[in-house]
Design a protein that fits this description.
With 1220 residues, this protein is an alpha+beta fold. It has 26 helices and 55 strands. The N and C termini lie far apart (135 Å). Among the domains are: 183 residues, Rossmann fold, CATH 3.40.50; 250 residues, no CATH class; 171 residues, Immunoglobulin-like (Sandwich), CATH 2.60.40.10; 144 residues, Immunoglobulin-like; 105 residues, Immunoglobulin-like, CATH 2.60.40. Helix content is 28%, strand content 28%.
Length: 1220
């Protein structure tokens, strides 16, 4: 019974996920056709685990009737027989029927699912109008039946119950219900599929991780992972299915390699059994169940496993429309199987592997021909030629083994061997009965000598011997491409020899010479064979023919360029200079070859680094002068390098401003775009010795060439020296290399990596730099003039014209000399008031002329310095970090004979001193102090220190400096002091000049230079004498408040606020208040009061208040506040009259007695309108006096921004001195 239960596992290409259907089978049958057709129409997004990319898949299903036997049993890992979803169908709308039978049937169905752990189910309730018409008495609303089902079975999964309304009708309601049902069914099916597939993959990984444990079986694991491949194939995810087989292939290969290294697994023993059958690959079945059963039961041989695995890979590749990959994999499989049998030490009958390889090659070719048309086969014959060549070689081996190529024919021993080989082929398979199968071809070829020759003549080798060399060459060229791409060196050599024979028979001289050159340098051949092919080339080259019939061949087969060296190594010379190029060539020929001419073509470019503000990156790089050509770059590239193109040769390019040479932009440029962007064929590069058919190349015969005549290239390393042209400035790039041997030219079409040298034409350059840093202003300093002549020839009589400036005169010397390449020459210097002329000695181009001059930068006086103490001529220079003190850049204008424009050169001089001044006071005595700080690194001495005043002759500056000579060390300061004496009044402004002579320490008197410092003293004042009126901090002083009425009052004020005094003059009352919010003053006594102001224009009233300043200095006047005083008879609200203005005129602080004023300390309110009466009177409603502020603009504070000088309090100290 158990064996019968396992039989439903049938692996076919039509497998679909299983969905069981329970309940009303008649109802399901009526809906089966539209359900099966419409389910896969809409794709679903399948999101997989472990971060794999989502895919869109079309879900199909195999709907079967529910049986408990279909539910998975514990331990069963077959996904193809696993029911992914269970559906219960019902159209019940009768409560009695539901309670009587439907509910019980549903319970049995769910109990069966629960018992087997199946949680993926759905109940479909179909609503039809026919069921309603049959029984209208017991019918309930559809929602009531659905609610009962959901309450009974879908307690927490309401989405597991779906209502389908009239699915067979064409109404919009029915279509909407049907679409919703299909979407729900796809979603549930995909969820179940993802969950169960993820669980299966986890189990499979767990099994794979146990492969190091004893008892692990590869065949068992093979079945599990192939099950996963079947599932992917079922979902039409052929790429994922192919990955599973590739992983199995790689795993088995690794175990075989480990076995060969001595680390064998126990389960490999079953694959080490002797090979009994060699029937070849079987690709005409989707699944070879016979071999699969052998793998499942551990009875398969190595060839059976490899054959089955490749058949499955072949089927998936055909589905993926990649038939040419099948041929590539087939060749790898056939070669690898031979090696694996050798590693596993499997016993194989002699010739059996040849039979297996021959049958497999023809089977693969037959399979490819069955899925491709003739046009595709003709266009892709390069993919199949390798299999044809391999099958031909194996057929030839079988013919030699069975005596079918012997002149005497096969012997009895050969016949017995043939019978044994045919017996191992087994019976012919049913799939091959109706066509000429590989089995029939091999059996027929081994049956007789004539049959063998007939089949063998199909191959290219025999065709070339039987009179069809053109067809043979085409086959051999395709085979050669395959061998070159895969790196088979010996088959390449053997095939080239055969191609050379065909080309010689066809009279293709150029192709034959190219193939002969490749063979002459092939180390796989013997020395005699190499010399033979080399002599073929030399014989043709020595023929006296017309020059137009020269044959151009690839140099990659003749010689290899290994190294290139420049002398000088910088590869950059000036125009007309000598430059040599040394080439190192590796001759591949077995004998010495006389070369009539070895030439290299040069591409000339007018690009110059730095011209028009552009700077090329090559000039910034360090050119070592030597270029080594690796085998991957030139002719000696490996066999597998044909697919790899040249690497990018990038260069940096910069755009600089022509004015200040600042960087504007930078970028990258590819120098070998013509090589990188060209089309790369599947064949090898024509520069390689393994190229199949090198194209015709031509030598660029340009104006610039490197040539050497009549040299001999010995086998091995050779060195050739060229003299490079360097006449025109620009960039010279080596493009091609050509070796001429008689009528044959060997051409290297591209020299890679890029090799170039530069010839520059330099403009004359004059620079001025100090001999020592820093340059100190005020002292004679030596500067060096350096002239790089460039392309200019300095002739006799050429002179430099230096414009003299007052601030930096040139100090000529009669012994000034110039040096040219260590040769001294006397300079002639003539100086006038405006120009200094320096006659230059004759100097050839591209030489350096150097001479020195002594200059002096005069230190400007202090009055000319800007506020930041930096003396410039309109240009601020950055001072060096090591020298932080003021500098003065001096610009020198020089007229040169090679240019019509003047050259401006700047020298930065640093002032050695930093000077500052201060005014000191001692009572009524004044002193001026000048501080001279030495900010340089040199020690100076100061003499004749003076201070003068330029405007006031009566002013006397008495020096208090005792020393006539002062030493000023580096980074130290010297203070000088003068007392100011005056006869009359002391001027408020003094114009002073500090002067001194300075020189470096230990210099004679003639070395002293003057130094001047101009400064101005302002606000020179004397404090008041004792007893004079002034304010002191902490002492009482008088504040005089002057209040002035500017205009006459208005009518309202006249009637309501006026009051006649004893003299009959009408007055109004104002209140004033001292409100000092800055806490500078303390009011002593009364701070507020009332005054009576006459009602006349310009009427003035003065009040004195006693205040005390709290701080010394210039303090602002105290703030005075003025308010209106309204009597009790006035109206409660009085509109201010804009014409009635009161001026709080002036505030004076006097040290005198104050007039008595009425005390207004009882006035508490200082707001807008305030009452002066008591609280009881206000409660009784009596009119009381009020205070009202003036409107904005009515009061002008005349002393608002004024200040008063407050002297500090006298500080009397008692000093106790004890003398013993």
């Amino acid at each position: 019974m158990e064996s019968q239960e396992e039989k439903p596992i049938i692996y076919t290409m039509e497998n679909k996920p299983i969905v069981t259907c329970a309940g009303d089978q008649g109802l399901f049958t009526s809906l089966y056709t539209p359900l099966a057709q419409q389910l896969p129409r809409e794709p679903m997004e399948w999101r997989r685990t472990y971060g794999r990319a989502p895919k869109m898949i079309h879900l199909e299903a195999n709907f079967v009737q529910f049986k408990e036997e279909l539910l998975p049993k514990e331990g069963n890992k077959a996904l193809l027989t696993f029911p992914f979803l269970h559906i219960y169908w019902t159209d019940c709308c009768d409560t009695e029927a539901y309670k009587g039978s439907v509910k019980e049937d549903m319970m049995r169905w769910q109990n069966s699912l629960r018992a087997h752990g199946s949680a993926d189910w759905v109940i479909v309730v179909v609503e039809t109008n026919d069921a309603k018409k049959k029984n209208k008495t017991n019918i309930l609303p559809r929602s009531s039946i659905v609610d009962k089902i959901r309450n009974d079975f879908c307690n927490k999964q309401n989405d597991r119950c779906v209502v389908l309304s009239d699915p067979l009708k064409d109404s919009s309601r029915s279509q909407e219900s049907w679409s919703s049902f299909l979407l729900k069914l796809r979603t549930l099916l995909l969820m179940s599929f993802t969950k169960n597939l993820g669980r299966f993959e986890d189990d499979m990984r767990t099994l794979r991780e146990k492969r190091t444990q004893p008892g692990w079986s590869f065949c068992e694991y093979f079945m599990v992972q192939e099950e996963l491949a079947f599932v992917f194939e079922m979902l039409q995810q052929f790429e994922d299915a192919l990955v599973q087989y590739d992983e199995l292939d790689a795993l088995f290969t690794q175990y075989v390699l480990n076995f060969g290294a001595g680390d064998g697994a126990n389960w490999l023993g079953s694959f080490c059994a002797p090979v009994r059958s060699w029937s070849g690959l079987l690709l005409r079945r989707p699944i070879d169940m016979e071999k699969r059963d052998g793998i499942q039961h551990g009875e398969a041989s190595l060839l059976d496993l490899r054959s089955y695995l490749f058949s499955r890979q072949c089927t998936l590749l055909i589905f993926l429309q990649r038939p040419w990959e099948v041929t590539q994999r087939a060749l790898e499989l056939l070669h690898n199987c031979v090696q694996e049998l050798h590693l596993l030490e499997v016993s194989v009958l002699e010739g059996a592997l040849d039979c297996w390889v021959f049958l497999s090659c023809l089977e693969v070719l037959h399979r490819i021909e069955g899925c491709c048309d003739q046009a595709q086969l003709a266009a892709n014959c390069s993919h199949t030629v390798g299999l044809w060549a391999y099958a031909t070689d194996k057929l030839k081996s079988l013919g030699e083994l069975c005596g079918l190529v012997s002149d005497k024919g096969p012997t009895s021993e050969d016949l017995n061997r043939t019978v044994d080989l045919l017996a191992g082929l087994g019976d012919e398979r049913p799939e091959t009965d109706s066509s000429p199968s590989p089995y029939k071809k091999l059996k027929e070829a081994l049956s007789s000598v004539e049959a063998f020759e007939r089949h063998y003549l199909v191959s290219a080798n025999v065709c070339s011997l039987k009179g069809d060399p053109e067809r043979a060459e085409a086959f051999l060229q395709e085979a050669l491409k395959s061998y070159v791409s895969e790196g088979w060196s010996l088959p390449v050599t053997h095939t080239r020899k055969q191609i050379a024979e065909c080309q010689k028979l066809l009279g293709r001289t150029e192709d034959y010479l190219q193939t002969s050159a490749l063979l002459a340098g092939d180390v796989n051949l013997s020395s005699e064979e190499r010399k033979h092919f080399c002599q073929e080339i030399l014989t043709f080259a020595s023929k006296s023919t017309d020059k137009s019939q020269k044959v151009i061949l690839s140099m990659g087969a003749f010689a290899q360029l290994t190294r290139l060296q420049f002398h000088p190594a910088t590869a950059s010379v000036h125009s007309g200079a000598d430059l040599q190029v040394e080439l190192s060539l590796q001759s591949l020929m077995p004998v010495s070859v006389c070369v009539q001419q070895l030439a290299a073509s040069i591409h000339f470019s007018l690009e110059h680094g730095g011209t028009h503000g552009r700077s090329k990156g090559t000039q910034k790089q360090t050119n070592i002068g030597t270029v080594d050509f690796s085998q991957g770059n030139l002719s000696a590239c490996p066999l597998s390098s044909s697919a790899a193109g040249p690497s990018l040769e990038l260069d940096e390019i910069q755009d600089r401003s022509p004015s200040d040479n600042s960087l504007n932009s930078t970028g990258m440029v590819c120098k070998n775009t013509h090589l990188v962007m060209r089309r790369h064929d599947s064949s090898s590069s024509p520069d390689t010795p393994n190229c199949v058919s090198p194209p015709t190349v031509a030598l660029d015969d340009g104006a610039h060439m490197l040539k050497v005549q009549d040299i001999t290239l010995e086998p091995g390393s050779n060195s050739v020296v060229f003299t490079a042209p360097s006449g025109d400035p620009g960039t010279y790039t080596l493009r091609q290399l050509c070796a001429t041997v008689g009528q044959v030219q060997f051409v290297l079409p591209h020299i890679y990596p890029l090799v170039q040298y530069e010839v520059y034409s330099q403009e004359p350059l004059l620079t001025v730099e100090p001999l020592s840093e820093p340059l100190l202003a005020g002292l004679p300093q030596m500067v060096k003039f350096t002239l790089l002549t460039g392309h200019y020839t300095v002739k006799k009589g050429d002179a430099l014209q230096l414009s003299n400036t007052e601030t930096m005169p040139i100090m000529p010397s009669t012994s000034c000399t110039a040096s040219i390449r260590n040769t001294a020459s006397l300079l002639s210097i003539q100086s006038s008031e405006k120009v200094t002329s320096i006659s230059l000695p004759p100097t050839p181009p591209y030489h350096t002329l150097e001479f020195q001059l002594e200059v002096l930068c005069i230190i400007p006086s202090g009055s000319d310095r800007p506020a930041n103490e930096r003396l410039t001529n309109g240009e601020v220079r950055h001072r060096p970090r090591s020298y932080s003190h003021p500098d003065t850049p001096m610009t020198m204008s020089i007229d040169c004979p090679w240019s019509i424009y003047s050259t401006l050169l700047a020298l930065t001089f640093y002032i050695p001193f930093k000077t500052k001044h201060s005014l000191l006071s001692a009572g009524n005595r004044k002193y001026i102090q000048v501080c001279v700080q030495n900010v340089s690194d040199v020690n100076f001495q100061l003499v004749d220190v003076k201070l003068t005043e330029k405007q006031h002759a009566s002013l006397e500056l008495h020096s208090l400096n005792t020393k006539a000579q002062q030493l000023v060390c580096s980074k130290q300061s010297v203070f000088c002091l003068w007392e100011v004496r005056w006869k009359a009044d002391l001027p408020s402004c003094l114009q002073c000049v500090f002067s001194a002579n300075f020189s470096p320490l230990n210099q004679d008197i003639s070395a002293f230079k003057p130094f001047h410092y101009h400064f101005q003293l302002e606000r020179v004042t004397i404090l008041p004498a004792a007893g004079e009126q002034h304010c002191r901090s902490g002492a009482l002083c008088g504040l005089e408040v002057c209040i002035t009425r500017l205009t006459e009052p208005g009518e309202n004020e006249m009637g309501e606020e006026s009051k006649a005094d004893s003299d009959g003059l009408k007055t109004t009352k104002l209140m004033y208040e001292v409100a000092d919010s800055s806490s500078n003053w303390a009011v002593c006594g009364k701070s507020s009061g009332m005054v009576s102001m006459p009602m006349l224009a310009n009427a003035t009233h003065k009040v004195q208040i006693e205040v005390m300043p709290l701080f010394a200095g210039h303090l602002p006047f105290p703030k005075i506040k003025v308010l209106k005083y309204l009597p009790h008879t006035a109206a409660p609200a009085i509109q201010p009259d804009p014409d009635s203005c009161v001026e709080n005129d002036s505030l004076s602080l006097l040290d005198k007695t104050l007039d008595d004023q009425g005390d207004t300390a009882s006035i508490r309110s200082r707001g807008s309108v305030h009452s002066v009466g008591s609280g009881e009177q206000q409660q009784r409603g009596l009119a009381m006096p009020r205070l009202e502020p003036f409107s904005p603009g009515q009061v002008f504070n005349h002393s608002h921004a004024r200040q008063v000088l407050v002297l500090p309090a006298t500080d009397d100290h008692i000093m106790e001195v004890n003398a013993t």
